[in-house]
Write a structure and sequence with these properties.
single chain; alpha+beta; Trefoil (Acidic Fibroblast Growth Factor, subunit A); six-stranded mixed beta sheet; five-stranded mixed beta sheet; 26 strands; binds uridine-diphosphate-N-acetylgalactosamine; binds manganese (II) ion
C-alpha cells in the first residue's frame, strides 16, 4: 500500500485514540501489538462470513437475531450492513451483459491503456467498500489496472481507520492501492479531485464506494477512450438492492437527462436504433458517480468546480461542460457496474447547507445562459444570493475553452427536452376572471394528480406555470393535463400522442378538448380542488387567460 503523506495520514491509532509512545523501540512494539489486535479483529470478522451468501447476485437472507439487526441497520444506514458484513467480500456475480451480443467479434476489446480507479468515501460501511475494491481487482485484467485510489473524506467511523489500513496492508498487499486520507471533510467533489491529483493511469474511472464491477466492465470503456479521448463514458448502472443485496440487471437501459429544478433524471433512449446495440449511446447527462475519462482530458476540460461543496450538482455541471466544450458523453451498454441506491443519505452535512441547490445555482450561472431562468424559478432564493460564491474562474474557463451556448446543447444533444416557453402557443400562469389559477397542487415530480385550481400567487411560482405546447399539450415539464372518464383532468406523464392530452386554445380564452368535445371549466371548483371538462358554454367559467400568448 502507498500511503500518501501529502495529505493527512493518521498513523495506526488504537481504537481508543491513544497515541503511540515516543520511544522508538516501544513504538515498534506498540505497532506490532496493534497490528496483532487488528489481525485478531479481522480474523474474527472473516470467520463470520457465510460462504456463497449472495453469490450470483441472488437475494441474500440472514435468520434470527441477525435478520432483525439487519432490518434495523437498513433503517439507520439505508443499507443492510449486517448482511453485507456476512457476505463474501469477493462474491461472484453472474455476467450481466446482454448475451445476444457477446459472441460478436467486434465486441472483443483489446485496449492498451491503463486506468486508475478512484473510490471516495465518507463513513461508508467497511465491508461494502472492500467489496467494491475486490470487484475491481477481480474483474479488471491487471495489465489494464494502474492502481486503485481510495480517498477517505475525513470519515469519523472507527472501523475505517486502523482496521482499513491493516486490511489494505495485509490482505491487499499484492495490489497497488493508494489510500489518501483527507484531514478535513471536503465533500465528494473535492475528494474526487484529490484522488485525481495523485492518479497516474491514462484513464480515470470514478466509482462510489458501494459498487460492484462485473465481467468485462473495464475493457469497452478503455477501448472507447483509446479511440476517442474526448469521449466520457458511463457504464450501465445496475441496481444492488440495499435490503438483500440482489444484483438486478436493468433490462432496457436508460440514459441521463435533467429537470429544470436541477435534478438528474433517467430518460428513455430516444433513437430506436440505439436500444439494441452494444455501441456507445449518446447521453445528455450522467448520474455522476460512475464514469471513465481520459486523465489529460479531465484536466484540460476543467476537472471539477472546486468551489462546489458537499454533494450534488457536479454531475450536471460536468455533463453540460463536456458537451458544450467539445467532448461527448456516452453510455456503454456492455460495461456494467452495480450500485447500491440508498433511500436517504446515511450521513449528515456540515451546517445543514443545501449543497445541491447552491452547486446547481453555480452551474446554472456558468453554463445555462438565459435558460437558468427555469432553475431560478424553482429556487428564487438562490438567484442573487452571495452564498453561491464567486464564479469568475469558471466563467473564465468557459471563455478559454470557447464553449458553445446552452441553446446549442439543447438543440443538438437533448432536442427532446421540453423548453417551457419556446415554440409554444402560450405559457405562464393561467387565470380565471376570479383571480384563480391553474395549479399542480404541489404534485410530486414523479406522481400523477389532479390539475387543480388555486388562488393566483402574486409572484410566479412553478406550481402555477403551465405551457400550451406546439403539440397542443397543456403541460408542465413532464406532465400533461389529460381527461379521464370524460370529465376529470389529471396531470400525468406526457405521451405525445394527443388523444386525451390534446387541447386547443381559442382566442376568447376557451380551452377545448377535441377528444371529448368538452371545455376546461372552473365552474363550482373551490380553492385547492381539481378542474373538470364540461359541455362548452360561453361563460366566464370557461375563459382562461395565459400570461403570455404567442398566437397570431
Ligand atoms: C449520485 C451519484 C454520486 C454523486 C451524486 C451527486 C451515482 C450512482 N451516484 O448520488 O456519485 O455524483 O449523485 O453529487 O451516480 N461522499 C464523500 N463525501 C461526502 C459525501 C459523500 O466522499 O461529503 C462519498 C460517498 O461515500 C459516496 C460518494 O461520495 O462514495 C457518492 O455519495 P452517495 O453515494 O451518497 O451519492 P448518490 O449515489 O446518492
Ligand atoms: Mn452512491
Amino acid at each position: 500500500m502507498t500511503v500518501l503523506f501529502a495529505f493527512y495520514v493518521k498513523f495506526l491509532p488504537d481504537s481508543n485514540g491513544v497515541q503511540a509512545p515516543a520511544n522508538k523501540r516501544k513504538q515498534e512494539k506498540y505497532v506490532s501489538n496493534l497490528s496483532n489486535i487488528y489481525e485478531q479483529k479481522l480474523l474474527e470478522y472473516e470467520s463470520k462470513i457465510i460462504p456463497n451468501l449472495g453469490d450470483d447476485g441472488n437475494p441474500a437472507f440472514l435468520t434470527g437475531i441477525e435478520a432483525k439487526k439487519g432490518e434495523e441497520s437498513l433503517k439507520k444506514f439505508a443499507l443492510n450492513t449486517v448482511l453485507s458484513d456476512r457476505m463474501p467480500l469477493d462474491r461472484k456475480l453472474r455476467d450481466p451483459r446482454n448475451k445476444k451480443y457477446l459472441g460478436a467479434k467486434k465486441f472483443k476489446y483489446n485496449p492498451k491503456i491503463k486506468t486508475s480507479v478512484i473510490v471516495i468515501f465518507y463513513n461508508e460501511v467497511l465491508s461494502v467498500i472492500l467489496r467494491t475494491i475486490w470487484s475491481v481487482i477481480l474483474q479488471t485484467p491487471s495489465r489494464l489496472l494502474q492502481e486503485i485510489i481510495l480517498v477517505d473524506d475525513a470519515s469519523t467511523e472507527e472501523s475505517l481507520k486502523g482496521l482499513l489500513d491493516h486490511y489494505v496492508n495485509r490482505r491487499l498487499k499484492d495490489y497497488n492501492i493508494k489510500l489518501v486520507r483527507l484531514k478535513n471533510r471536503l465533500g465528494l467533489i473535492r475528494a474526487r479531485l484529490q484522488g485525481a491529483r495523485v492518479a497516474q493511469g491514462d484513464v480515470l474511472i470514478f466509482l462510489d464506494a458501494h459498487c460492484e464491477a462485473t465481467t468485462g466492465w473495464a475493457e469497452p470503456l478503455l477501448s472507447r477512450i483509446e479511440e476517442q479521448p474526448t469521449a466520457v463514458l458511463v457504464p450501465i448502472i445496475d441496481v444492488i438492492e440495499a435490503s438483500d443485496m440482489t444484483y438486478s440487471t436493468n433490462g432496457n437501459f436508460q440514459v441521463g437527462g435533467f429537470s429544470w429544478s436541477g435534478h438528474f433524471t433517467w430518460i428513455d433512449i430516444q433513437d430506436e436504433r440505439d436500444k439494441n446495440t452494444l455501441a456507445p449511446v449518446k447521453s445528455p447527462t450522467m448520474a455522476g458517480g460512475l464514469f471513465a475519462i481520459d486523465r489529460n482530458f479531465f484536466w484540460d476540460i476543467g476537472s471539477y468546480d472546486e468551489q462546489m461543496d458537499g454533494w450534488g450538482g457536479e454531475n450536471l455541471e460536468m455533463s453540460f461542460r463536456i458537451w458544450q466544450c467539445g467532448g461527448r458523453l456516452e453510455t456503454v451498454p456492455c460495461s456494467r457496474v452495480g450500485h447500491i441506491f440508498r433511500d436517504f443519505h446515511p450521513y449528515s452535512f456540515p451546517n445543514n447547507k443545501d449543497t445541491h441547490g447552491i452547486n446547481t445555482a453555480r452551474l446554472a450561472h456558468v453554463w445555462m445562459d438565459d435558460y437558468k431562468r427555469f432553475f431560478f424559478m424553482h429556487q428564487p432564493g438562490l438567484e442573487n444570493n452571495p452564498i453561491v460564491g464567486d464564479l469568475t474562474h469558471r466563467k473564465q474557463l468557459r471563455h478559454k475553452l470557447r464553449c458553445k451556448p446552452f441553446k446549442w446543447y439543447l438543440d443538438n444533444v437533448y432536442p427532446e427536452k421540453f423548453v417551457l416557453d419556446e415554440g409554444v402557443f402560450a405559457y405562464g400562469q393561467v387565470r380565471t376572471e376570479f383571480e384563480m389559477c391553474l395549479d399542480d397542487l404541489q404534485l410530486a415530480e414523479d406522481k400523477m394528480g389532479p390539475l387543480g385550481l388555486y388562488q393566483c400567487h402574486p409572484y410566479l411560482a412553478m406550481s402555477q406555470y403551465f405551457s400550451l405546447s406546439a403539440k397542443g399539450e397543456l403541460r408542465k415539464e413532464n406532465f400533461c393535463a389529460e381527461v379521464f372518464n370524460r370529465q376529470d383532468v389529471e396531470l400525468t406523464e406526457c405521451h405525445g400522442h394527443k388523444r386525451e392530452q390534446y387541447w386547443v386554445l381559442y382566442r376568447n380564452g376557451t380551452v377545448y378538448s377535441p377528444s371529448t368535445g368538452k371545455c376546461l371549466s372552473s365552474d363550482g371548483v373551490s380553492n385547492g380542488n381539481g378542474v373538470k371538462v364540461h359541455k362548452c358554454s360561453d361563460t366566464v367559467y370557461q375563459r382562461w387567460k395565459f400570461d403570455n400568448v404567442n398566437m397570431t
